[in-house]
Amino acid sequence: MNKKAMIAIIVLLSCTLTAMLIGMICIRIKEPRIPGSEEQSTAASTEAAEQGSSELKEEQTSESKEEKTSEQIEEKTELKSETEEMSTEELATEAETETEQKSSEKTKEQTTDSKKEDQTATSKKEKSTAAASKEWVKLYKDSIKKDMDEWGDYDENDEFDRVYAPSYALIYLDDDELPELVERHAKFTSCLRYYHDGKIHEEQLDTHFPNYIPRSGLLLDSEGYKGEGGDAVYCLKNGEWKMLGGGGWEYPYFEDPEMTEENTTYTWEGTKVSKKVYDENIDKLYNHFEGDVSIEFISHKEMLKKLSEFE
User: Fold this and answer.
1) 106 CB-side CA count, 13 A
2) Paired residues of 190 in beta bridges
3) What is the per-residue pLDDT across 182-199, written as a single tens digit (0 to 9) for each?
């Protein structure tokens, strides 16, 4: 066999082998896939998807948990803050309530103490008054007996004795329960006697018929005789007797017996004033419209009997 034939055979064999290989390859390509491989692939994909979804869900769950945890922490913080605020308010309210209760209790205690003090003072005053009751009666009686001893024999049928002999009246000048004794011991003068600190005090008056406003402590002492006179306002309070103010007037009685505003000179506390100012000064100290009354006197025998009623 020559070289050309051999070469031809080799080429032909090579072509044949090449064609067979190409055919096998084509057949391989056209062959259907093995059953189950697709399912496995789908399962793998599904598994991968589920795994991814699970991871996503886990991430979402984690994020959700973190958000919920954060929200819960915030809610707890807010709740705690509110609770603390409420607790602070409650404590403040409790403190205020406790303070008010203490203050109320203290006020009650003070009120009770004050009432006890008032009751004690009232009780002492009542006891003092009760203890002094017989004492002031005795001292008033003794002063009347002394007056009558100085006067001398008294004859009820004698007009002079009836007019000029001492006569008496009990009045309630200040606001306590012990009366004052007014004595008219002559036709134009009188005096006020009052009990204080265990003894009798005596104040001389210029008129024999003074006016007073009951239980006010105010007494008006007005007098006048033959062209001259005056007015004085006195006050008795807590055992103290003092003049609040006074003035005088005069006119030429023997030249002009009738007293008029034109012929009368008025002075108040040593200063010359008009009649209008003089009257206004009296009214400021002693208002007649507040219920002033005149004093009515009884004989010394009648007064001794009346004083006995207080024993």
Assistant:
1) 6
2) 205
3) 999 776 689 999 999 999
